[in-house]
Amino acid sequence: MKPLATYYSIVDCDIGEGTIIRDFVNLYGCKIGRNCKIAAYVEIQRGVTIGDRCKVEAFAFIPSGVSIGDEVFVGPHVCFTNDMNPSAMGDWNITPTEVKNGASIGAGSVIVCGVTIGENALVGAGSVVTRDVPADTTVVGNPARPIRRK
Hints:
Blueprint: E1 2-3, E2 9-11, E3 14-15, E4 20-21, E5 26-28, E6 31-32, E7 37-38, E8 43-44, E9 49-50, E10 55-56, E11 61-62, E12 66-68, E13 73-74, E14 79-80, E15 97-99, E16 104-105, E17 110-111, E18 116-117, E19 122-123, E20 128-129, E21 137-140, E22 145-149
C-alpha cells in the first residue's frame, strides 16, 4: 500500500501491494486488492471486498455488503446502498450487492442494494440501478435500462 496522503483514517484493513490511497479517505474493516487506486474522499466500510486493479474515484461511498471483483471502475460520486428498508431506529438488514469483474460504473450513479452488475457491464453516468445488470450490457437512466449489448 502506498498512502499518498497526509490525512486519512485506515483501520483494520487488508490492503494489497501496490495500491495507492489518496487524502481524506475512511477505510475500515475492508479488503482491497493489489494495484488499486483509491481517490480522495472515499468511504469503504467493514466487510467490503474489492479485487485487484480497481479504480475508485473521488467521493464514492461503498457500504458493508458490497463485493467488487477485479478491474472494476467506480466513478466519482457513486453511491451504493445496503438496506432495502432503512430506518433511524434499530438495526439495519444488510442486503448484499455484487459487482463482477471488468464492470464500470459511471459518475453519480446510485446502486440500490441486492443487485448484481455483471462482468464487463457498463452503468452510464447518473443511472439508478434497481435490477441486475447482465454481463456485457450497457444500462442508463432512472431506473437503469439496457440500451446495448457488447
